[in-house]
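DM from R.C. (forwarded with permission)

"hey, sorry to bug you on a friday — could you get me a structure for this? deadline for the figure draft is monday and I only need the backbone to look sensible"
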Amino acid sequence: MVTFAVHPVPAAARAPARFPTATVVIPARYGSTRLPGKPLLDIAGRPMIEHVHRRASAAAGIRRVIVATDDDRIAETVSGFGGEAWLTRADHPTGSDRLAEVARRLNSEIIVNVQGDEPLMPAPVIQAVVAMLARDPGLGIATVRCPLTDPEMLADPNVVKVVVDARGDALYFSRAPIPHARDRAPERVALGDRHIGLYAYRRTCLLELAAIPPTPLERLERLEQLRALESGYRIGTFATDQAPVAVDTAADLERVRHLFATEHAND
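My reply, with the result:
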């Protein structure tokens, strides 16, 4: 499996001695405004969904990987490379709802949501969020953050920001630039933290959240994770050095293809 030097292995990502049962669920929709059929797009001779599946399967502590899709073409592709695909409803309003549909049929203690457009998500980061829940029984959700150093990204509403407390639990997520530093010069390196949309849930927590109607801040910011904070759940965050490149646009796709080609050239 390809591993990229651009994603340093976090020292804190080592698995604890005993993992609870953990299943990765990869939501994968065929429809995409910018890149139709995105999960099936070719990267280094394999469909993107296969690269995501391989990364998830390589994470320590993961017992099972399921692709949750509403499209037969994706399901057939996953079955073709030996993966497990579950067909889900097509009318889910959020990715969490699709995740919860699968979780209701599982007995795993932990459900990990790995997005289907993250072919470069490092396996050690996946295992790190599972390890956070394994170490802390009071934690219901774990996610990932990395330093935000680009002022343009800080101002971009498509880049979600997060602020955390002293132990690393999320205080708030926003599309706005947070935290606002009144007296900080823009050339300073550390501007805040970017949220990376990888989640590990305790199954019970995920199902409870799916039963709660959208909350005011969630509707305002259009960020599902705010439902958890507004409802009193802790969200722990794992700090990594760099965000993996997700495929959202054609430019992202070419960048990821280049990274794979470069890695193969160095073999």
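R.C.: lifesaver. The longest strand covers residues 192-202.
me: no worries. The domain at 20-265 is CATH 3.90.550.10 (Spore Coat Polysaccharide Biosynthesis Protein SpsA; Chain A).
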